[in-house]
């Protein structure tokens, strides 16, 4: 499919499908069929939620790919160390390319992700050997702990999005290009900002916001974005990630399930496999509830321009088991029609036999 680059957004997208109008909104350039991929997009920045990471949901630090095998993940989530998944050929997890940062030992799914992270932001965020120490007193570790004590599960955002935004600017050779990308996200009024920050941080949001601002500035102040570190600027940053942050989910189990569903096997065996999978999800639900995936958040320029609807005609998916977002048409979309999505929480579906994958469709 022909991809064109929009020079305003700095993104590659499916030009035959969409046209970007001034203001917020995406519209179909031609008729789109149900099931068509409308566009694919990687985020400017993404991060795993901090509680999710603390509870051993293993994901690539850069692309958020689920690092466990499907069987490892199923055993952990069900607390059944003897669990064995049928059809191991459906688990395509390849752990051989995994590589750790030589400084802090954080894990990446491949050398490309490690190098990209290092080039973009990890030089200034690497905590070195202190990351693995029990009494880690690194400024970033203290900031992360403070965030966890403010923002409990279910998580919807992370202070690390802001930290990585600053790090991207700090490490960028062409800082104006990075800043231009961030400037294109939706802005809010002061009242809207307060409402968003209140939702993220709770009743004492003003005191907590000030604490986070001071700790972030102490760790990673950047002169080129000094306005971000003022009380007003920091509040605006929080509102930006609250408004534009897109939830991300990856799961090796979901990939295994999808591949199992595509197996060409006899009906009787198919019924047995479906029953096994349904029981597996029941077992995991008893132990882990709805927290089955590696979860995080990211900032996507093109996706952020989509308006939301209670009856969306497009669906956000993560079929690659990483942070690459794929927007798929849920129904036929006519030329000139606006392309709308729903909030992730509204998109969540029950894990029945036909719709058990929360994020990976």
UniProtKB/TrEMBL annotation:
GO terms for biological process: methylation; negative regulation of gene expression, epigenetic. It catalyses: L-lysyl(20)-[histone H4] + 3 S-adenosyl-L-methionine = N(6),N(6),N(6)-trimethyl-L-lysyl(20)-[histone H4] + 3 S-adenosyl-L-homocysteine + 3 H(+); L-lysyl-[protein] + 3 S-adenosyl-L-methionine = N(6),N(6),N(6)-trimethyl-L-lysyl-[protein] + 3 S-adenosyl-L-homocysteine + 3 H(+); L-lysyl(36)-[histone H3] + 3 S-adenosyl-L-methionine = N(6),N(6),N(6)-trimethyl-L-lysyl(36)-[histone H3] + 3 S-adenosyl-L-homocysteine + 3 H(+). Gene3D superfamilies: 1.10.220.160, 6.10.140.2220, SET domain. Its main location: cytoplasm. Residues 7-344 form the SET domain. Transmembrane segments: none annotated. It holds the Pfam family SET. GO terms for molecular function: histone H3K36 trimethyltransferase activity; histone H4K20 trimethyltransferase activity; zinc ion binding. It is an enzyme of class 2 (transferase). Its EC number is 2.1.1.359, 2.1.1.372. Keywords: Cytoplasm, Metal-binding, Methyltransferase, S-adenosyl-L-methionine, Transferase, Zinc, Zinc-finger. This is Protein-lysine N-trimethyltransferase SMYD5.
């Amino acid at each position: 499919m022909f991809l064109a680059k929009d020079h305003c957004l700095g993104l590659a997208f499916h030009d035959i499908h969409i046209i970007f109008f001034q203001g917020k909104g995406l519209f179909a350039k031609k008729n789109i069929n149900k099931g068509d991929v409308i566009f694919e997009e990687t985020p400017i920045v993404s991060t795993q939620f901090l509680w999710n990471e603390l509870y051993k949901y293993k994901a690539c630090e850069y692309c958020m790919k689920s690092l466990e095998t499907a069987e490892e993940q199923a055993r952990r989530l069900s607390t059944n160390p003897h669990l064995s998944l049928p059809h191991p050929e459906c688990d395509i997890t390849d752990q051989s390319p995994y590589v750790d940062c030589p400084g802090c030992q954080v894990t990446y799914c491949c050398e490309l992700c490690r190098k990209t992270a290092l080039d973009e932001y990890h030089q200034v965020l690497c905590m070195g050997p202190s990351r693995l120490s029990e009494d880690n007193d690194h400024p970033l570790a203290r900031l992360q702990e403070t965030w966890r004590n403010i923002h409990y599960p279910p998580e919807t955002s992370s202070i690390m999005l802001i930290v990585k935004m600053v790090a991207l600017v700090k490490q960028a050779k062409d800082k104006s290009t990075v800043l231009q990308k961030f400037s294109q996200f939706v802005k809010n009024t002061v009242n809207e900002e307060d409402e968003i920050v209140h939702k993220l941080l709770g009743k004492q949001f003003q005191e907590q916001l000030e604490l986070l601002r001071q700790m972030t500035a102490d760790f990673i102040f950047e002169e080129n974005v000094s306005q971000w570190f003022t009380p007003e600027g920091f509040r605006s940053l929080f509102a930006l990630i609250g408004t534009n942050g897109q939830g991300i989910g990856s799961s090796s189990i979901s990939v295994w399930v999808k591949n199992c569903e595509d197996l060409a096997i006899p009906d009787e065996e198919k019924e047995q496999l479906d029953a096994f999978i349904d029981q597996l999800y029941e077992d995991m639900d008893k132990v882990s509830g709805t927290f089955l995936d590696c979860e995080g958040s990211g900032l996507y320029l093109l996706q952020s321009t989509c308006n939301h609807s209670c009856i969306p005609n497009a669906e956000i998916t993560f079929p690659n088991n990483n942070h690459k977002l794929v927007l798929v048409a849920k129904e036929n979309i006519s030329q000139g029609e606006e392309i709308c999505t729903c909030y992730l929480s509204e998109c969540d579906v029950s894990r029945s036999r036909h719709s058990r994958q929360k994020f990976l469709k």
